[in-house]
What does this fold into?
Amino acid sequence: MAELGSKPAEHKSALAGHASVAEELSYNASQVRFDAGRDPCECASGRASDEPGLPWVAVVTGGNRGIGLEICRQLASSGVMVVLTARDEKRGAEAVSILGSLGLSNVVFHQLDISDPSSAVRLADFVKEKFGRLDILVNNAAIAGTISEVGNPETFRQEVAGMDLVEKIGRIRKHVREPYKQAEECLRTNYHGTKAVTKALLPLLHSSSHGRIVNISSRYGLLRFFSGEELKQELNDIDNLSEQRLDELSELFLRDFKDGQLARRGWPTEGGFIAYKVSKAIMNAYSRILAKEHPSLCVNCVHPGFAQTDMRFQAGDLTVEEGARGALMMALAPKGGMTGGFLNLTEHAPFM
Ligand SMILES: NC(=O)c1ccc[n+]([C@@H]2O[C@H](COP(=O)([O-])OP(=O)(O)OC[C@H]3O[C@@H](n4cnc5c(N)ncnc54)[C@H](OP(=O)(O)O)[C@@H]3O)[C@@H](O)[C@H]2O)c1
It folds into this structure.
């Protein structure tokens, strides 16, 4: 039995035959609407610096494989100085070396386990000392909160080839279990971990002339998956929601999960990936609170789509290049663009 997301990715397909970032961004530009009514084509300029000779600095969490590695590749390709982080030193160093072999020397590694707050503090010290500021934070690292019973991922991938998305997800669900231990780990990583990293790096984002936070979320974090109207409304009522309440909700969810009482309070009950859905919904709400409290920053959430990564047994419909597009658009968006928003792939969409 393997835990979802625990196997190192095969990066060859992820890194072969790329169009340039500028081409990819301009391909997407027509699909995006920015709240502030700015011309989305501005973000296709590939401009990766506010001042000549001073590249933007980005931190990407979970940068050693999957969508995170691809985000690092695309950011570095557009001239951003990338701090690729990974919890495992060896896997992180290997990822940097893969990007180096593509001619991307503007990538450095720093260890970061997002579920360990002291690790986030060490990363912040490193970024402060080396760059003095941070322009872009991509909170990408996450886990599915499940245990997989898929034996051979390649056999599984062949088994689901040709199925439509709904059938594929249904088949994946049949092969995963969601014990309490994994649910707890999921909330601790996807919500609390993301928050700890963000808090540690916030002062450095404020030292940038245009700090941006891109939280890689999921369609599964949309509030439509909650079974109770009251909870849905509470999580959507950003003006009256606090970080402290989100922490309480996270603990309440875990208690209800343990006690088999999910329906009573209105948590998601159908379709599996319950803890993952709750972790992303709470992270989305945190992201919106941050956007409100830090108007000088741009803070947005992005659903990358069902992408070919280990988390989805390489069975997704999208390549990692496609999955990284929305994140790149938000990471490279010009000053004054959307904040507190959600992108479904590259389309602005509601949190509901
Ligand atoms: N793929 C999809 O279809 C899809 C759909 C919707 C949303 N997403 C979101 O997209 C993001 C990337 O997912 P992916 O598909 O690329 O998944 P993935 O291939 O499983 O990669 C997950 C990454 O997160 C890292 N990670 C997990 N826990 C960590 C921790 N405690 N500290 C530091 N790093 C940690 C992993 O590191 P290790 O190698 O050390 O495990 C790995 O680098 C996630 O936020 C996911 O929820 C993906």
User: Anything to note?
Assistant: Residues 8-349 form a domain with the Rossmann fold fold (CATH 3.40.50.720). The first helix runs from residue 12 to 15. Confidence is low (pLDDT under 50) at residues 1-46. Residues 5-6, 9, 61-62, 64-68, 86-88, 91, 112-115, 140-143, 189, 193, 216, 218, 303-304, 306-307, 309-312, 316 surround NAP (CB under 6 Å).
